[in-house]
Amino acid sequence: MTKRNHDNSAAHASDRSRVIWYFIFIVYLAVAVYIVVDFTKPQVAYENTVNLEFFKEIRRSLRMLQTGNGRAWAIRNLFGNLGIFVPFGFIFPWVTNGRLTSIKTALAAIIVVGGIETYQLISKTGIFDVDDFILNWTGVLLGWLLYKAVAAVWRRMRRRRED
Fold it and tell me: Potential cystine with 64: which of 11, 12, 41, 70 (Cβ 3.0-4.6 Å)?
């Protein structure tokens, strides 16, 4: 196989893998939005539809974990909001073939998370909560760090194969 043919097949494989990553990302986003927004719930009139006090709900959840009162809700609130966006931080850079910087990935996450929170506020299907935003964005950051670690290992393995 000539070098040119090898380059073309590598580019084709890269294009194919990017399509797969796009598909995975779209499915993930649809599932994440469905879980976070929960369209199955009827619109409800929450007493307070906005929480703009930083760490209010996080502190409350941590207290619940310590006391055991409402532990299941606290675990779901903390780890659910954190974990639901770890895949975003991991998959999004693969979709963009690693061309986006961490700042652009963070901005994309802010737009998505902000859009979800704003939808919950407008539709009254949830509460616009700054703590959810913090936890979701932290999940994106953890996913991005995981992406960086996996990408570094992947590059090392590829270099070893090429040598």
Answer: 70
The pLDDT of 67-94, averaged and rounded, is 93
DSSP string over 58-107: HHHHHHHHHH-TTHHHHHIIIIIHHHTTHHHHHHHHHHTTT-S-HHHHHH
Give the domain range for residue 17. 3-162
SS3 129: strand
Integer Cα distance of 50 and 100 in angstroms: 32
Task: Give CA–CA dist 49/99, Å, rounded.
Answer: 38
Residue in this structure with the two tokens 């659910």, named with its chain if needed: 80
CA dist., res. 55 & res. 74, Å (int): 13
